[in-house]
Write a structure and sequence with these properties.
The protein is of the alpha/beta class. It has a single domain, classed as 3-Layer(aba) Sandwich (Rossmann fold). It has a seven-stranded parallel β-sheet, with helices on one face. Helix 2 packs across helix 3 and helix 3 runs parallel beside helix 5. The N and C termini lie far apart (about 35 Å). The N terminus is likely disordered.
Length: about 300
C-alpha cells in the first residue's frame, strides 16, 4: 500500500463494480512482475490450535517491530478462536502491552446495513473480542455501512488505513464459489479487481448472502428475524482489494469450516494446484475468474487449515 498522502484515490468502474485505488500508467506491469508462490498448508488438529497460531503471529510481528501494528481482522468462522483468545487475554493485564499497540481494521462489510445488525462483522467482533479488548487496543476501525455515501466512506477508510504506514498482518479466509473458484475478502469472480485496487464496492448476490448468513449462524451469532431481513436487503459488499492484500507484510490464512462448507475442499485445492500464467493478460484473466489465486502472488503467506480441508 502507498505511503500516506503520496497519491490521491482514483475510481475505476468494471461493469457494476466500483474499485478504488491509485492510478498506474500501466496496470499490467505490476501484475506481471509478481512472482508466483507455492502454498504449503500448515495443518493443525483443532480450531483452537489455529487460533493460538494466529495469535502467535501477532506476537511475532510485535517482537520484530517497534511502535504500532496494523492488523486486518477476518470475519466469520475462520478467526473466531483467535477472537475468543484475544478477548480472554484482554480480561486480564497479560497482553496489555501488545494490545495497546494494535490498530485493528475490518476487511469487508455488507451494505447498507445498521452497524448494530447481528449479521454485521462488527457485532460479531464485539461479541467475541469483548469490550475490554476494544477499550485496550490503540484503535478499532470498521467500514461504515449505514451511510448514503458508501463510496466516500470507503475512500476515507482507505486513507485512514494508509496513513498508519501499511498492513503488518492481513488475516484472510477462503470463500468457495461456483466451479471450485474462490474469493478472498469479498473479491468476487468476475468483479474485475486489479493489482492496484485497494478497495471496492461489489453488487451483492444471493450466493454471498446465503453463505454469509449460514456461516454466522454456524458460528453461534445471535440473529433476529429483523436482522436477517435487513441483511437479505443489502445491495453491496464493501471489501479491501488486491492491492491491500499484496501490500501487507504478512498474510495469515485460516480455513477451519470445511465441515459446514464442504465446497472449500475443492476450491482450496484449486488454489494450491493452479498453474498461474506468466503472460499478463492470461494471468489477469485467471485472477478474475478465481480471486483466491491472489494469495499465490504474495511472498509471505502462512495458510492454516484443519485436516478435513485437505480431504478428497
Amino acid at each position: 500500500m502507498s505511503a500516506p498522502g503520496s497519491q490521491s484515490i482514483s475510481r475505476r468502474v468494471v461493469g457494476n463494480n466500483v474499485w478504488l485505488g491509485h492510478a498506474a500508467t500501466d496496470a499490467a506491469e505490476p501484475l506481471a512482475r509478481l512472482a508466483v508462490q507455492a502454498i504449503s498448508p500448515d495443518v493443525l488438529e483443532t480450531e483452537e490450535a489455529v487460533g493460538r497460531a494466529m495469535f502467535e503471529e501477532i506476537e511475532k510481528a510485535a517482537s520484530g517491530k517497534q511502535g504500532d501494528l496494523v492488523i486486518i481482522l477476518l470475519g466469520g468462522r475462520g478467526a473466531q478462536a483467535l477472537h475468543r483468545l484475544m478477548g480472554e487475554k484482554a480480561r486480564s493485564d497479560e497482553a496489555d502491552g501488545l494490545l495497546s499497540r494494535l490498530h485493528v481494521f475490518t476487511q469487508d462489510a455488507l451494505a447498507p446495513m445498521r452497524m448494530d445488525n447481528g449479521l454485521s462483522f462488527v457485532r460479531d467482533f464485539e461479541r467475541l473480542l469483548g469490550q475490554d479488548f476494544l477499550r485496550k487496543v490503540k484503535s478499532f476501525n470498521s467500514m461504515s455501512t449505514d451511510t448514503a455515501d458508501l463510496e466516500g466512506e470507503l475512500a476515507r477508510y482507505i486513507e485512514k488505513l494508509e496513513s498508519l504506514g501499511g498492513i503488518d498482518i492481513f488475516f484472510l479466509g477462503h470463500g468457495p464459489e461456483a466451479e471450485a473458484a474462490s474469493h478472498l475478502a469479498y473479491i468476487k469472480p468476475g468483479s474485475g479487481a486489479a493489482a492496484g485496487d485497494v478497495a471496492g464496492l461489489i453488487p451483492i448476490s444471493s450466493t454471498i448472502l446465503e453463505h454469509h448468513i449460514s456461516k454466522f449462524k454456524a458460528g453461534g451469532s445471535a440473529v433476529t428475524e429483523a436482522d436477517e431481513a435487513e441483511c437479505r436487503a443489502a445491495t453491496h459488499i464493501l471489501t479491501l482489494g488486491p492491492a491491500a492484500i499484496l501490500g501487507a507484510r504478512r498474510i495469515v490464512q485460516s480455513i477451519v469450516d470445511a465441515s459446514t462448507a464442504p465446497a472449500k475442499r475443492a476450491s482450496y485445492r484449486r488454489v494450491l494446484d493452479t498453474e498461474i500464467a506468466e503472460a499478463p493478460a492470461r494471468r489477469a484473466s485467471q485472477l478474475d475468474e478465481n480471486p483466491g489465486l491472489w494469495i499465490r502472488l504474495h511472498p509471505n503467506v502462512r495458510s492454516l487449515v484443519l485436516p478435513d480441508v485437505l480431504e478428497a
